[in-house]
């Protein structure tokens, strides 16, 4: 036909060519336009809620590269001190934490006990160098707030935990059946400095919240249930004073805050006796004769083996073996059925210097500058100790081991020694909810990855509870620094034990 090409009219050919041209332009724009390309998820594009880190926070901090050479740690990260004012929240890509390896030091048995800080020193555990480190992002946990009191975002898709319930994902809800024991009682186990009902505090709404995991139920921890489940078993907490708070909380929960003259002090079986010149013993161990259940706590602020360099010198320096577990743990691990480890808040330069702790690796003074950085040493130690515990588990098939993630501090407008405060005494308004699948403590989560040691993830749920700290309240109402690190009891650490009980 005249004016046609293979049966197509001139008009049809024109429309066809126009469509081809338009499609070509769209494809070029799709590839080049940042707005459009940003809508395409990148490979592994999981999002995680992380605090914004300012340029000022990055100043004077060393990257942790770990040990080099055979069996060493290889990790490059930015090390950042926590902000002293509330941080804003933004999205950042989630990072996989490398399953690090550690140097296998020549472990030698030592029975030397380390010194414990006084209560005053324990109050100042909120160090300037508390950090959480990932490969390309940093999540400081001090003074982080969100307007909605929600950690995470519901429509953000992250991998679910492969085994069982994620007890760290859920929300705080009111419960008139709380607290689980009286804040005026439990004097047999609870230190008075942590019993906020005995202070001048007047608002106790923080006692009336219960943690509800999302999409699963959590068994209530009662004394009878715990003792029945732990019949002929021993549970051991090894860590700093926050580990001691969890220990005291569990003793109060199991006894329901009542006096129990039948409970036996068996600390002597573990060498936990007060030595001459010490404020207290290095720990406590109590046994419930009815079920032969033992609950134990051992003070080890750094989870390192501490060894005096000169046993004849009362003011000697101590070798701080970053790649060795505490001698107490090595000696008694065979007697434990449940083990809960924690560390974090004693890792600051001032603590190490005042305690005369000298970092050692493989039995020798550390010479690696990256390990010498406080965050580097802390992270190296956590990975080392978790790896050691994991290597011991095949010897003790009945042992369940946990590493507890870090308990957040809530100092606002300063730090513990610069006027920082935590004056809020009522739970935040809005939803007190955690929607993240992954822990916001990447070091704790990374250390247990690929091991049989379980993560006791308490960081995000505790981050929402800034009203639950000791704050400015004390028995004598003396003015001074506020304690925005330790928690009122009964309080948040009770929930840590409920999460632990659910996973035992």
Features:
single chain; 504 residues; alpha/beta; Rossmann fold; 2 domains; seven-stranded mixed β-sheet; four-stranded mixed β-sheet; 23% helix
Shape: globular
Task: Report the uncertain regions.
Answer: 31-147, 155-162
Query: Per DSSP, what share of the residues sits in E-state strands of 2 or more residues?
Result: 15-25%
| Sheet with most strands | 7 strands, mixed
When the domains are counted, the total is 2
Q: CATH superfamily membership of the largest domain, which one?
A: SGNH hydrolase
Which fold does the CATH topology of the largest domain refer to?
Rossmann fold
What's the gyration radius in Å? 26 Å
Oligomer: single chain
> Mind telling me the CATH class of the largest domain?
Alpha Beta
State the CATH architecture of the largest domain: 3-Layer(aba) Sandwich
- pLDDT averaged residue by residue: 77
What share of residues is helical? 10-25%
Would you report the number of β strands? 21
């Amino acid at each position: 036909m005249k004016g046609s090409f293979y049966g197509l009219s001139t008009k049809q050919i024109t429309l066809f060519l126009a469509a081809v041209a338009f499609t070509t332009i769209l494809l070029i724009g799709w590839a080049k336009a940042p707005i459009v390309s940003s809508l395409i998820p990148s490979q592994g594009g999981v999002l995680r809620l992380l605090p914004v880190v300012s340029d000022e926070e990055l100043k004077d901090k060393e990257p942790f590269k770990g040990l080099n050479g055979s069996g060493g740690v290889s990790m490059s990260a930015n090390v950042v001190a926590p902000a002293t004012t509330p941080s804003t929240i933004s999205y950042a890509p989630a990072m996989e934490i490398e399953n690090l390896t550690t140097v296998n030091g020549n472990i030698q048995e030592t029975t030397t006990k380390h010194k414990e800080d006084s209560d005053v020193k324990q109050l100042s555990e909120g160090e300037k160098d508390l950090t959480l480190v990932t490969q390309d992002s940093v999540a400081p946990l001090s003074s982080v707030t969100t307007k909605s009191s929600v950690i995470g975002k519901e429509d953000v898709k992250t991998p679910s935990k492969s085994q069982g319930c994620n007890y760290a994902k859920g929300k705080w809800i009111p419960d008139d059946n709380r607290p689980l024991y009286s804040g005026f009682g439990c004097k047999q186990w609870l230190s008075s400095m942590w019993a906020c009902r005995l202070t001048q505090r007047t608002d106790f709404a923080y006692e009336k919240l219960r943690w509800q995991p999302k999409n699963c139920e959590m068994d209530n921890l009662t004394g009878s249930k715990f003792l029945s489940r732990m019949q002929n078993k021993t549970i051991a907490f090894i860590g700093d004073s926050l580990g001691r708070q969890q220990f005291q909380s569990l003793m109060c929960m199991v006894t329901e805050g009542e006096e129990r003259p039948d409970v036996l002090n068996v600390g002597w079986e573990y060498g936990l006796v007060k030595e001459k010149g010490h404020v207290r013993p290095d720990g406590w161990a109590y046994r419930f004769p009815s079920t032969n259940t033992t609950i134990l706590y051992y003070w080890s602020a750094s989870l390192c083996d501490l060894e005096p360099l000169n046993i004849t010198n009362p003011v000697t320096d101590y070798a701080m073996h970053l790649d060795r577990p505490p001698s107490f743990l090595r000696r008694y691990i065979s007697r434990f059925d449940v083990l809960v480890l924690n560390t974090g808040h004693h890792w600051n330069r001032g603590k190490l210097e005042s305690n005369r702790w000298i970092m050692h690796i493989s039995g020798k003074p550390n010479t690696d500058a990256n390990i010498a950085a406080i965050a580097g040493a802390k992270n190296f130690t956590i990975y080392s100790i978790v790896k050691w515990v994991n290597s011991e588990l095949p010897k003790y098939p009945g042992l369940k081991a946990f590493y507890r993630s870090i308990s957040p501090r809530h100092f606002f407008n300063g730090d513990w020694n610069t006027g920082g405060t935590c004056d809020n005494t009522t739970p935040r308004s809005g939803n007190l909810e955690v929607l993240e699948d992954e822990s916001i403590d990447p070091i704790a989560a990374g250390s247990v990855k690929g091991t049989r040691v379980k993560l006791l993830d308490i960081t995000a749920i505790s981050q929402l509870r800034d009203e639950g700290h000791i704050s400015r309240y004390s028995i004598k109402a003396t003015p001074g620094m506020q304690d925005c690190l330790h928690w009122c009891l009964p309080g948040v650490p009770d929930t840590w034990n409920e999460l632990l009980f659910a996973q035992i």
